[in-house]
Design brief:
Blueprint (H helix, E strand, L loop, with lengths): L5 H8 L8 H8 L14 E4 L1 H7 L1 H13 L1 H22 L7 H54 L4 E4 L19 H12 L25
Parallel strand pairs: 1-2
Helix pairs in contact: 1-6, 2-6, 3-6, 3-7, 4-6, 5-6, 6-7
Length: 217
């Protein structure tokens, strides 16, 4: 069984998942009693919604707090993985005179521990994703409301989303001056009052030995 490092990878990447939709932004921007449809000069805005949520000071703070919360679990999973790798090396180092029963017993232990690691990693990943979704969902609602206000204040008539993992981007090109993503992030940071997080310290370089089996990304 291949090593399970999906959970640790997700923690390192700080995967951002938003529960708010662009349609919700458009609905928030619409007046309570819509006027009769009519042709108007188009003023289109480009918005990378999910990246914007994660780029706000509040969003970054929420992700950092959740990652800190799961650091002990990440370390525990890494320890489990290291133990399995050690057991595999011990198995490979057995002398040729070792009995088949001993080899089978060691293989069974390794298999049991790998299955336990798989279950633990999946449970941790599910819990982590749920916490991230809940925390960023709250920020996303407020970012959506502010984006709607920004659109109205600046006379935009259409909003196109270019950010998100759930669907492919449909905007192939746009003029940079129509992108309101950073402007909305800046406005939100002012309103939220959350200070920018301190810059992360660079991780120390370390040499690693390639594993016998390459884990899935």
């Amino acid at each position: 069984m291949k090593r399970t490092l999906v959970f640790a990878t997700a923690l390192a990447a700080g995967l951002v998942t938003s529960t708010y939709s662009v349609q919700a932004v458009a609905q928030a921007a619409a007046p309570a009693a819509a006027p009769a449809p009519q042709a108007v000069p188009a003023k289109i805005a480009i918005f990378a919604f999910e990246p914007a949520v994660g780029a706000t000071n509040e969003g970054q703070k929420a992700v950092a707090e959740i990652q800190k919360k799961y650091e002990p679990k990440r370390a525990a999973l890494e320890a489990q993985n290291n133990e399995i790798e050690s057991l595999k090396k011990q198995l490979q180092a057995l002398p040729a005179t070792a009995s088949d029963d001993e080899r089978a017993s060691r293989l069974k232990v390794i298999d049991t521990k790998e299955k336990a690691l798989q279950r633990d990693a999946e449970d941790a990943q599910t819990s982590y994703n749920s916490d991230i979704s809940e925390a960023l969902g709250k920020v996303a609602k407020k970012v959506g409301d502010l984006a709607a206000k920004y659109l109205q204040d600046h006379g935009f008539t259409l909003l196109l989303n270019v950010g998100g993992q759930q669907s492919a981007e449909t905007v192939l090109w746009f003029a940079p001056e129509t992108d309101i993503t950073q402007a909305v992030v800046n406005e939100y940071n002012k309103v939220s009052g959350v200070a920018a997080p301190p810059p992360s310290a660079p991780a120390p370089a370390r040499r690693t030995t390639p594993p016998a089996t390459t884990p899935k990304p």
